[in-house]
Design goal:
The protein is α/β, with parallel strands linked by helices. The protein has one domain: Acetylglutamate kinase-like (Carbamate kinase). Helix 2 links the parallel strand 1 and strand 2. Helix 3 packs across helix 5. The protein is globular and about 50 Å long. Bound molecules: adenosine-5'-diphosphate (ADP) and the ligand N[C@@H](CCC(=O)OP(=O)(O)O)C(=O)O. The site of adenosine-5'-diphosphate has 22 residues, from helix 10.
Length: 291
């Protein structure tokens, strides 16, 4: 067995991110309760192994749209306010569903909603860090999302891949797992290029890997495609966490990865003393705009 994979067993603080498309049935857009249940069981089991666990869950906007039966015309009218209203509805639904399922395992959860200011403002960031630490001491699993109801372009992080890496960096996590609709990183988007090859391990995340995420295709339900996952890998690995991108088709992949089995793409941590999270977050938008 690959010794670097085997070391994943020893991780103490794990952040797991699941995207909107992974939480719903493709055909109907309704919640996939079985997948949610298995996800919750996996997280509770990690917690029972003595690890600190954080879930970053997308899905507020997608579930909110579904709940209020939004027509495409309504979406066109006031896209930002409509999206924010949907997020307000969907976030409450998501939390209700998670709390119900976590309660079956006697697991207490908490909701943490963040914006870019949570990181860039020193007081907000320290408060958020203290809250996470207190929740871990209490044995609670925090469930994190962007505060979509108030976040507009000026203060948004914009996608939960990046958010999950920011959270991992902020709380000193040693492993981040991004659950996606694809097995991991390929040399190119395999949906567009049948010759794309799967990459098992990224030892050093240089330009050649970052270029592989430039294709703009994605599930159409969530945000980002592969490029936001590579931004997440940049933050996580520079902060000293390993990161894995893996397929959410069977969420039992979480314990298989942590047991050291060869699933997904593993990005190895390369802690950089010069990495400054607030500074990185401050420059996030200008970096994206420069492409
Ligand atoms: N180099 C690449 N390797 C793998 N997938 C890629 C790559 N470039 C683009 N993609 C696309 O990114 C998609 C995953 O992004 P997205 O749909 O936003 O995921 P999620 O909703 O799970 O966060 C894949 O389904 C794939 O089509
Ligand atoms: N914060 C948004 C999701 C943003 C996002 O990054 O979505 P996804 O690409 O599905 O992980 C929501 O909850 O709807």
């Amino acid at each position: 067995m690959d010794t670097r994979r085997n070391l994943l067993k020893k991780k103490r603080r794990v952040v797991i991110k699941i995207g909107s498309s992974s939480l719903q049935h493709t055909e109907t857009g309704d919640m996939d309760y079985i997948r949610l249940e298995v996800l919750v069981r996996e997280l509770c089991n990690l917690k029972n192994q003595g690890k600190d666990v954080v879930l970053v869950s997308s899905g507020a906007i997608a579930q909110g749209k579904k709940a209020v039966h939004l027509t495409p015309e309504q979406l066109q009218e006031h896209p930002i306010a409509v999206k924010q209203a949907c997020a307000a509805v969907g976030q409450a639904r998501l939390m209700m569903t998670y709390q119900k399922i976590f309660a079956e395992y006697n697991q207490v959860t908490a909701q943490i909603l963040m914006t870019r200011q949570t990181i860039s403002n020193d007081i907000n960031r320290i408060n958020a860090q203290n809250t996470f630490e207190e929740l871990f001491r209490m044995g609670v699993i925090p469930i994190v999302n962007e505060n979509d109801t108030v976040a507009t372009h000026e203060i948004e992080i914009g996608d939960n891949d990046t958010l999950s890496a920011i959270v991992a960096s902020m709380i000193g996590a040693d492993l981040l797992i991004l659950l996606s609709d694809i097995d991991g990183l390929y040399t190119d988007d395999p949906r567009a290029n049948p010759d794309a090859e799967f990459i098992e391990t990224v030892e050093h995340l240089d330009e050649s890997f970052l270029r592989m995420g430039k294709s703009t295709t994605g599930s159409g339900v969530g945000t980002g495609g592969m490029s936001t996952k590579l931004t997440a890998a940049t933050i996580a690995t520079a902060s000293g966490a390993d990161m894995v991108i893996a397929n959410s088709k069977d969420v039992r992949i979480i314990h298989r990865i942590i047991d050291g089995e060869n699933y997904g793409t593993l990005f190895l941590a390369e802690k950089q003393d010069a990495f400054d999270l607030p500074d990185f977050v401050e420059n996030l938008h200008s970096c994206r705009e420069r492409g």
